[in-house]
Amino acid sequence: MSTMKKLNTLLAVATFGASLSSFAADIDMNADANDVAIKGYDPVAYFTVAQPKKGSPRYSATYKNAIYHFVSEGNRNMFRDNPAAYAPQYGGFCAFGVSVEKKLDTDPTAWKIVDDKLYLNLNKDVQKRWLTDAPGYIDTANDVWRDIQNVAASEL
User: Fold this and answer.
1) For the stretch 3-39, what's the b/e string if a residue is b when 16 or more beta carbons lie within 10 angstroms of its beta carbon?
2) pTM for the full predicted model
3) Among the residues of 3-149, which ranges form H helices?
């Protein structure tokens, strides 16, 4: 199976999964049925220790009706001081998916910081494709996001 065919298959399967995973009160946020974003990973850790770290419900904060977990009180406080600096782009949906007008769930271990912004992808295979032209995909996704951010994943 060709790489593009595999990618299209992944996107088709993920589209269905994404519609099941985005239950946050704002439809522009990717969160689980309990409104937890990034599957409980600490968004600040991507910036401070350059790796994904599972947070704890003990340290949590809400941003745009999604709940974020943190590894420490310090990380939570950093987030509270400037949540837009740490929250993933596109409401936590897959950066590549947004560039093709889809809201797809993400794997918190498929991540990249570009120009001080956190981007997540569906999985590491999709991330490899996204990394071939991250700036181009980001430009496209930024344009697309304005049109789809308030559209439910199931409607895309």
Assistant:
1) eeeebeebbeebbeebbebbbbeebbbbbbeebbbbb
2) 0.84
3) 3-21, 45-48, 73-81, 83-86, 95-99, 124-131, 134-148
Nearest-angstrom CA–CA distance, 115 and 86: 12
pLDDT tens column, 107-147: 999 999 999 999 999 999 999 999 999 999 999 999 999 99
Sign of the C-alpha dihedral, residues 10, 109, 92, 36?
positive
Q: What is the C-alpha separation between 37 and 114, in angstroms, rounded? A: 20
* Residue where the block lists tokens 């409104």: 35
Position 106, amino acid? T
Structure tokens at 60: 């949590």
Distance CA 88, CA 17 (A): 19
- Residue recorded with tokens 């099941």: 20
Q: Give tens-digit pLDDT for 29-49.
A: 999 999 999 999 999 999 999
